[in-house]
Structure formats: structure tokens, C-alpha cells
Specification:
Elements: E1 2-8, H1 12-21, E2 28-32, E3 48-49, H2 60-79, E4 83-84, E5 88-92, H3 98-110, E6 117-120, H4 121-127, E7 137-141, E8 145-147, H5 149-162, E9 166-169, E10 173-178, E11 183-187, E12 193-201, H6 207-213, E13 221-231, E14 242-244, E15 255-258, E16 264-267, E17 271-272, H7 283-294, E18 304-315, E19 321-324, E20 331-335, H8 345-358, H9 384-393, E21 400-402, E22 407-408, H10 409-417, H11 425-432, H12 445-456
Parallel strand pairs: 1-2, 1-12, 2-9, 5-14, 12-20
Antiparallel strand pairs: 3-8, 4-8, 5-7, 6-7, 10-11, 11-12, 13-16, 13-17, 13-18, 14-15, 15-16, 19-20, 21-22
């Protein structure tokens, strides 16, 4: 089968592009090497919708971030994804830091960030009463927000499939070959082949590897690991806005923020790593981000429930790279999509489609395109009257599987059978939050595994944590 467009990579960029392509009468497919979407930088980030003041003037990051921020709120409404416009503060602690703050302000104005202003100590401490007294001023960006990056990515994938797009998971691209019709894409054992007229490389930290398959070696990806801590919903101190320290060459600085699910997130640091898959968490790294966050508020780690790390696909150009291949006709690169890649993703999807059109892709609007997607029913968000009605309609809503997050059997079953549905333990977790609470899956994981086996009609021993050979059980010890 010949596709019009094949997208390599199921992160936020690839999934938003796939959704944008589904607005047109096209045969499209997305190829993802993992068992789920958002398994790279798209899940392991700060979950911030950045306002757009940090990107250097004149860059593609600056061009897409501020308008992308506004587009993200609209997309979240269409996709029924929880998002909050809480605003952000970049805080300084001495007058020596003020010139850098003013530079950020001027950059934000140039980039078109609305409502941006510098606030002084009195107003700052009214906004954030728990700030340390050393905080003297801040850059206030009211348009910044918080959402769930993997929920947004999955929602975009679902909506694209609702509109006719195809998705193949656990397809690791290993070879590209130019053909008379377009480009052939082979998986890692060359047993599967996909052919498309146009191919878009949205492979994140692997985008350099994909580019090299087309003999494009003029850019490189520089992997930088960032570590984070997640605090319990009962964390004793929670900011009202997103709190940043001043950015540096390594990134936007340590932040302290609520999450959209009312946990807290602390981090990240930034360290160069050799392995693009090095998501290890170190005690030294956690100490580093804790000390950075303690400049903002007097926090401790007593209520930290987990930690994680992500690898940013920084580019050698220090900017997003969007350009056609120099050696393979029909291939478009979307590489180096680090922060603010998430906030820019809706705008990036549109920008990539514009580039494909310039390359020759014919676009005819799909009159049946539906931009709306309905999220799963969330038992924990219902009142008692609504809960009773749902249980009466479907008794599985009365069986709570994850006690920490209040996730029911019905929600887990729904997550499995939706378009782009879950088929691993981790993919259920990302869709329902089962396993994301204080016990981190200690209570609910065995039950979720049994539901997966039942609904997928597979033996319990074939259920995996995250696809591949990540089996949870090996064999039965007794019948």
C-alpha cells in the first residue's frame, strides 16, 4: 500500500502533525518504535505551555512558540484535555540579575508574547505568599499554562485515527530507500515495509539517526538529560503559578509548579549524555534540582513520591530544524524539537504541512474532518449522583482498581478499546493514572495486568510493562 505521508515518531510533534494531516483527503500513517505514544521527551518534560519569551529572536522557536501557546489552548478544548492557564514567573534574587530579566522581557515583546510585564517584590509576594524573602522581582507571563503532555499526545493520536489516519506501534525504522513512487521505510528486521510519497522525520532523539539513513549528515542531535521529582497531591507547599529561576545556556532553569492533576513537579537540571536513551536518575542530580527549587520556596523531599528523567533532543543549530532532505526527495526533517517544542506543537504541525505542500503534496480538505475528541469518563471527577448513574449503567464503574487515583475497572477497559488504545501496563497508566498515586502501582498493578489479559485475550504471562520483552510474569508456579 502506498501512503501519501508517513510520519516517523509518535511524540507530540508527530501526533500533532498526523492530526493536522487528517484535515485533508490523504492516506497517512504514523510509525512509532515504542509500544505507546509520548515515550520519549514528550512524556518526560515539565508539562508547561511556555508563553514564548525565552526563545531567541528570529529563530523558528520564537516564530512558533507564542502563537503555538494560544493554539494549544484551542486544541486542548477540542481534544477535551485538561489545561490550566496559570501564568509563569521568572524570579530574580538580586539587582545584579535584573538586566537578564529585562532582556527576557524585551525578547518576549519582540516574540509577540501578550500581557508580559515585570512585577516588583510587593506584587510578587501577593501572587506567591510562600516565596522566599530573597525573591525581589519577576517576569510575569499570564498566558503560560500547565497540562498533561502525554494525555495531549495520546488525544491527538486518537483524534487523527478517528479521522482516518493509521498508526503502527513497535515499528523501529532502520532503513530508508528511494523508490519510483516515493520512499520505502523498513523496520528493524526488514520484515515489514511501508511506502509513502512523503516521509516526515519526527523521531526526536533519533532524528539524526533517521537523517543519516538519507545521507543527511549536516546536523547532529546533542542529548541532554533533565531530572525531575514529583510530589504527592498533599504536598504542603504548592505555588499558584509556574515558578522559574533564571534560564542559562543549559535550559530554562529549575522550576517548581503544580501539575494539572494537582501534584507538584520540581526540575529539571541539564547534563550532556552520550546515550540518547540514558534516562537514569542520580542522587546528585536530585540534590541539584532540590537546591535550585529551595531558592524559590522552602520545600523538602518528604512528600516526593517518584522521580524521572528525560532526554532533550537539542540540535547542533540550537534551533528547531525543519527542512527537506538534501539527498532524498520527499523526506522532510523535523529535528531538534526540544523546549518549547511541546508548547509549539500545534503550530509546528501546521508549519510542517505548509512545508509538505511546498514540496509538492496536494492538499484537498476533508469535509468529514472532526476536530473534537471526547475524553474518557473520570470517576474521580464525578459527584455521587453521577457516580451512581454510571454504576447503574455499567457496574464496572463500581470496581475501584487504583485506590490512590480513584480509577475504576470501566476506565481501564475503555482505555484499552479506544482508538490508539492501551495494551501495556504503562500505556494504561498514561491514559487513566492507575499507578501514578502515592503507592506507585503497588496495589493496582496486578489487577490492571489481569484486566489487560482478559480484554486482549492473551495469557497473563504475555502482558508487558512497556512492550517488547518487558514481561511482568514468566510462568505459573502452580495451577
Amino acid at each position: 500500500m502506498l501512503y501519501d505521508v508517513a510520519v516517523i515518531g509518535g511524540g507530540i510533534t508527530g501526533c500533532m502533525l498526523l492530526r493536522e494531516l487528517s484535515r485533508y483527503k490523504l492516506k497517512t500513517v504514523l510509525l512509532e518504535r515504542s509500544s505507546d505514544f509520548a515515550c520519549g521527551a514528550s512524556k518526560a518534560n515539565s508539562a508547561i505551555v511556555h508563553a514564548g519569551f525565552d526563545a531567541e529572536e528570529g529563530t523558528l522557536k520564537a516564530k512558533l512558540n507564542a502563537p503555538g501557546c494560544e493554539m494549544m489552548y484551542r486544541a486542548a478544548k477540542e481534544l477535551d484535555v485538561h489545561i490550566k492557564k496559570v501564568g509563569s514567573l521568572v524570579i530574580i534574587f538580586s539587582e545584579e540579575e535584573r538586566p537578564q530579566l529585562e532582556k527576557l522581557y524585551k525578547r518576549g515583546i519582540t516574540n509577540g508574547v501578550p500581557e508580559l510585564r515585570i512585577i516588583e517584590k510587593e506584587e510578587l509576594h501577593k501572587l506567591e505568599p510562600d516565596l522566599t524573602d530573597e525573591a525581589i522581582a519577576a517576569l510575569y507571563a499570564p498566558t503560560a499554562g500547565i497540562t498533561c503532555p502525554y494525555e495531549m499526545t495520546i488525544a491527538a493520536a486518537e483524534n487523527a485515527m478517528d479521522n482516518g489516519a493509521e498508526i503502527i506501534r513497535e515499528f523501529e525504522v532502520c532503513h530508508l530507500e528511494k523508490t519510483s513512487c516515493g520512499i520505502s521505510i523498513y523496520d528493524n528486521d526488514k520484515k515489514r515495509r511501508i511506502e509513502a510519497k512523503y516521509v516526515v522525520n519526527c523521531a526526536g532523539v533519533f532524528s539524526e539517526k533517521v537523517a543519516n539513513m538519507a545521507n543527511d549528515t549536516h546536523f547532529s542531535i546533542i542529548p541532554n538529560r533533565g531530572e525531575y521529582m514529583i510530589g504527592d497531591k498533599n504536598f504542603p507547599i504548592k505555588p499558584n503559578t509556574i515558578l522559574f529561576t533564571l534560564p542559562s545556556e543549559k535550559g530554562k532553569g529549575i522550576l517548581f509548579s503544580r501539575t494539572v492533576d494537582d501534584n507538584v513537579i520540581i526540575g529539571p537540571n541539564s547534563h550532556r549524555v552520550e546515550d540518547v536513551e540514558d534516562t537514569s536518575v542520580t542522587s546528585e542530580g536530585l540534590d541539584e534540582i532540590l537546591k535550585g527549587a529551595q531558592r524559590l520556596m522552602p520545600i523538602n523531599t518528604r512528600d516526593v513520591i517518584t522521580s524521572f528523567a528525560g532526554v532533550r533532543p537539542s540540535s547542533s543549530t540550537k534551533d528547531f530544524i525543519v527542512e527537506p532532505s538534501r539527498n532524498m526527495e520527499g523526506l522532510l526533517h523535523a529535528a531538534g524539537i526540544e523546549s518549547p517544542g511541546f508548547a509549539s506543537s500545534v503550530a509546528m504541525g501546521k508549519y510542517l504541512v505548509e512545508n509538505l505542500e511546498k514540496m509538492g503534496l496536494e492538499l484537498v480538505e476533508n469535509p468529514d474532518f472532526n476536530p473534537f475528541r471526547k475524553k474518557m469518563n473520570r470517576f474521580r471527577d464525578m459527584n455521587n449522583t453521577e457516580r451512581n448513574a454510571m454504576i447503574k449503567e455499567n457496574p464496572m464503574y463500581g470496581n475501584v482498581i487504583c485506590r490512590c487515583e480513584g480509577v475504576t475497572e470501566a476506565e481501564i477497559v475503555d482505555s484499552i478499546h479506544r482508538n490508539a488504545g492501551a495494551y501495556t501496563l504503562d500505556s494504561v497508566k498514561r491514559r487513566t493514572r492507575a499507578g501514578m498515586g502515592r503507592c506507585q502501582g503497588g496495589f493496582c498493578s496486578p489487577k490492571v495486568c489481569k484486566i489487560l489479559a482478559r480484554e486482549l485475550n492473551i495469557p497473563l504471562e504475555q502482558v508487558t510493562k512497556n512492550g517488547g520483552n518487558s514481561y511482568i510474569l514468566t510462568h505459573k508456579t502452580k495451577e
